[in-house]
Amino acid sequence: EWLQIGHDTSKLQVFINSGLAEPFKQKTVDVQAEAMIKLIDRGLPIATVPDGFEFVVVAADCHGVRYNIRYVAVAVDESYRMAIIDYGEVASLASLGDRIGSPYLREGGAGEIGVDMVAVDAGYDTTSVYDYCRVTPGTMPVFGRTGKTYRPTDIRPVEKYPNGKPMAAGMKAMMINTDRWKDYIFNLMTMSWDGHGQYIRIADGAGADLIESLTAEKRIEKTDTAGRVTTTWRPKGTTKNHYWDCLVYATAMAKWWGPQVISHKKQIKRRRPAVDKRQRLRRGGFLDDLPEL
Questions:
Q1: Is residue 201 exposed (0-12), middle (13-18) or buried (19+ Cβ within 10 Å)?
Q2: Which of 159, 262, 264, 286 has the highest local Cβ count within 10 Å?
Q3: Burial grade of 91 (CB within 10 A; 0-12, 13-18, 19 or more)
Q4: pTM of the model
Q5: What sign for the dihedral angle of Cα 254, 259, 262, 268?
Q6: Distance (Å, whole) CA 58 – CA 84
Q7: What is the pLDDT of residues 74-115, one digit of tens each?
Q8: Contacts for 243 with CB less than 8 Å, ≥ 6 apart
Q9: Which 8-state DSSP code applies to residue 17?
Q10: Residue 147 zone, left/alpha/beta (φ > 0; ψ -120 to 50; rest)
Q11: What spatial distance separates the first Cα and last Cα of the chain, rounded to whole Å?
């Protein structure tokens, strides 16, 4: 029976529990609210983009027309450091567009920056989300899935021709392995936001609803027969994890599109300002006093 188990974790659990009458080796890690509160930057006001952060992405968790839509706005810099700058809930997707349509202020009052990308969860009300993303520039539907065989992020075409070929300019959806991205965010949460390398911090003004949602799940680590550890995330209790899901979608979107958008913005800044053609033809030096022809 032991040889037939192979690398099947579920069969191994049954064998250890029933055959050996021993507990299955499983480790549970909780994200505590105290640790999350330490990530709050008291010097960064809510709805403010930190200095040096050039990419802003918003993710929305949509559960149908009967429920409000929760959203989280995340700012990212070129070193993939992240800051949760805004969150809240709105009654509809149209209200979401109105809420995030205005640009965010930069830290220190040094201008404004608009939202670059919007990720909308399409797992519950797929049709409504598709209709919204078709007519709203900069938005993309996202689907969360679990399983170690899935890649962290994958882009799939949504609109296809009758022969099954994807439309070149058709709408696309992002497929996200939520377990992998939750592991990534969990590792960021263990780093100090004022340290070096990648980190995540939260703007001042975050309420208990955000902290409770970000800590609504626990990580379960299981070890198979080969000693390999797999992780899954499960709810702790009845606390809703809407903002936690939004953060996962925003992080995946930021890692996928952030480098391209930041690089494009840098190219725009490096471009030479346009010069009037009449200025190019203007004479200089000893010919300045000659009459115009």
A1: buried
A2: 262
A3: exposed
A4: 0.78
A5: negative
A6: 10
A7: 998 887 889 999 999 999 888 988 888 889 999 888 889 999
A8: 61, 70, 72, 87, 209, 210, 213, 214
A9: I
A10: left
A11: 100
Q: Give the tokens for residue 102.
A: 């205005």
Evaluate the CA torsion angle 167, 158, 140, 67 in order and state its sign: positive
Instruction: Return the amino acid letter for 223.
Output: T
For tokens 């890692």, the residue is 255
Closest CA to 124 of 242, 248, 251: 242
Q: Which two tokens stand for residue 239?
A: 């606390």
| Distances in whole angstroms, Cα of residue 8 to Cα of each of 4, 5, 15, 32, 100 | 9, 6, 11, 31, 46
pLDDT at 45: 93
| Dihedral angle of Cα 237, 243, 246, 252, to the nearest 10 degrees | -80
Residue 25 CA to residue 13 CA, distance in Å, equals 8
Residue 193 burial (CB count, 10 A): 19
Q: Is the dihedral of CA 57, 91, 36, 42 positive or negative?
A: positive
Residue type present at position 122: A
237: enclosing H helix or E strand: none
220's enclosing H/E stretch is strand 217-223
Pairing of strands 117-121, 55-61: parallel
Place of tokens 């080969």: 226
More confident residue, 25 or 209: 209
**Token pair 């069969």 is at which residue?**
11
Query: 260-277 burial by CB neighbour count: b if 16+ within 10 A, else e?
Result: ebbeeeeeeeeeeeeeee
The amino acid occupying position 254 is A
Give the rounded distance of the alpha carbon of 232 from its chain centre.
Answer: 19
